[in-house]
Amino acid sequence: MGGRVAQGGPETGPTRSDPGALHLLPSVVVGGALVVLALAAYWLPGSVRFYNHFVWQADAFLHGRAAIPWPAAGTYFFQDVLPLRDARGFLTGYALLPFPPLPAIVLVPFVALFGLATDERTVSVALGALDVAICWWALGRLPVSRPVRLATTVFFAFGTVLWYAASLGTTWFFAHVVALAPALLAVGVALGGDQSFATDAAGEAARIEGGEQSPSGRLRGAVRAFATDAETALRDLPGFLDRRQFLAGLLFGLACTARLTIVFGAPFFAFVGSGGSVARRAVSAALGAAIPIGLLLAYNVATTGHLFHPGYEYLYRLEAVGYRALGYNPAWNIEDIRYLPQNLGIMLTSLPAILPNSMPGLGGGQALCAEPGAARGLFDLACPIAMPQEIGMSLLLTSPAYLLVIPALVRLRRSRLVAGCTLAVVAIAVVNLMHFSQGWVQFGYRFSNDFVVFALPLVAIGMARRGGVTRLAAALLAASVAINFWGMTWGNLLGW
Q: Measured between alpha carbons, how far is 125 from 87 in angstroms, rounded to an integer?
């Protein structure tokens, strides 16, 4: 690879670091093997959980209503609901879920067959494996070698918190697993129509030959080009639209109907995809995304009378008072810049409890290693070497292969792909970090599932620029897989 991303079409041929045998296998065979491994890993070990809000929501849809019975047998333990009251203020026996409805829609055919006995975890495991398959396909649109493509897919499947989310399958984690499928499809469609590598290479040659234009000059040129394209769009919108980019936007919008914060990854589709210009890419993708997002807003209005679901604000007021130990402040907004410092600490610096003598987190108080001279074990619940923190743990600790993004950022100013991915990741992360809650109870940092689809191309590009699957890349990947196995196992031991 010469330390740089290869230019040209997807999947460059064998290089010095590319095992020839891997290139002899059909892509579908490699993808199928990854799916089988994912199914096995996500299914075992596992344990029963009771938070299946979306099963009840799907059942409600099948009965022609949006509200679920609450409190009622099977839902009495649900906390994340908005209780409905009558004009006198009495509970009606029903409640609304504040979550976007796509995960429940996905479960509708299963609930139609199995009713409220539907095993949400089984569906989650299958969808998680499907996410892995789509990831393998999407990364095939990148001009990187097959070993890099494989290593990045393995990282996604087993080195990120997707493993924990798919294996757990409860309400909040199931929403992530569902959202990833259309989000990965959207990124793959955009990458498949993008010529940014060839364009970036031509631009780099022109820069070297004729001298680099100043940042202000590039900005003025981009603004003028956008204005010209926007004027063209107003004159002939149907002819201006790019169908491939419209499809990418439609899939992206569909992902937002499972996890709304993914919407802040929209800048990716202005930078990456077919269409030939920023305006054409952005307008085409925006119109596609507007359909599912518009339907989501219409659903909110029809069920609550508000564009944005009031259930989130209701839950915030309850949790801000009920879980003060988590640092929630009732005087602040549900999305507040003042939450950034403490939440950034969880995302980047939160560590496991090392050699604990009592249970960490809000469940503290239970003594550990009470017997004199007790030997500590890696997975010994009574006397552990280390235990994960239920509020979350550092993203760089749980998935250290994300560090491979760094070499890709060298091309931030010269690559539309790198710029689009970076803006999407940063925008989603900042909005999530301003949210009062960071996904407690969890292993790792589950909100990273919202931006992982935009981070994966950066991981692949960074790995390629460093010469492919080097010893360092392999070590970071192995560490990511091992740590996520550790965390997933502890999550089951602790009943999270």
A: 43
User: Distance between terminal CA atoms of the chain?
Assistant: 43
Q: In what order do the strands lie in the sheet with 82-85?
A: 68-69, 91-96, 82-85
Q: Is residue 237 part of a domain?
A: yes
Residue 317 forms part of a structural domain? yes
Q: How far apart are alpha carbons 182 and 253 in whole angstroms? A: 8
Exposed (0-12), middle (13-18) or buried (19+): which is 76, by Cβ within 10 Å?
A: exposed
Q: Are 154 and 476 in contact (CB under 8 A)?
A: no
- The better pLDDT of the pair 489, 325 is held by 489
User: Token pair of 357, please?
Assistant: 């003598």
In a domain, 366, yes or no: no
The predicted-structure confidence for 145-189, as pLDDT tens digits, reads as follows 999 999 999 999 999 999 999 999 999 999 999 999 999 999 999
Q: Is residue 176 part of a domain?
A: yes
Which SS3 state, helix, strand or coil, does residue 83 take? strand
| Structural domains in the chain (count) | 1
The H or E element that residue 134 is part of is helix 120-139
DSSP string spanning 146-203? HHHHHHHHHHHHHSSTHHHHHHH--HHHHHHHHHHHHHHHHHHHHHHT--HHHHHHHH
Could you tell me if 120 and 169 are in contact, meaning their C-beta atoms sit under 8 angstroms apart?
A: yes
Q: Name residues whose C-beta falls within 8 Å of residue 357's C-beta, 6 or more positions apart in sequence.
A: 367, 368, 369
How far are the Cα atoms of 154, 361, 378, 445, 476 from residue 351, in angstroms, in the given order?
24, 12, 16, 12, 18
Identify residue 270 by its one-letter amino acid code: A
Range of the domain at 345: 27-52+118-204+224-352+388-494
**CA-based nearest residue to 85, from 314, 370, 291:** 314
DSSP state of 403: G
Q: What span, in angstroms and rounded, lies between the C-alpha atoms of 165 and 439?
A: 11
Each residue of 438-476: pLDDT tens digit?
988 999 999 999 999 999 999 999 999 999 999 999 999
Q: Give the residue among 251, 253, 245 at the shortest CA–CA distance from 283.
A: 245
- Rounded Cα–Cα distance for residues 187 and 248 (Å): 7
Phi-psi region at 275: left, alpha or beta (left = phi > 0; alpha = psi -120 to 50): left
Report which of residues 260 and 367 the model is more confident about.
260
DSSP bridge pairs for 91: 85
For 220-259, letters b (16+ CB in 10 Å) and e give: eeeeeebeebbebbeeeeeebbbebbbbbbbbbbbbbbbb
* Cα–Cα separations (whole angstroms), residue 250 to 59, 140, 258, 298, 453: 26, 21, 13, 17, 16
CA–CA gap between residue 416 and residue 411 (Å, rounded): 9
Long-range own/partner contacts, residues 302-309 (CB < 8 A, 24 or more apart): 302/66, 303/66, 303/67, 303/96, 304/82, 304/96, 309/82, 309/96, 309/98
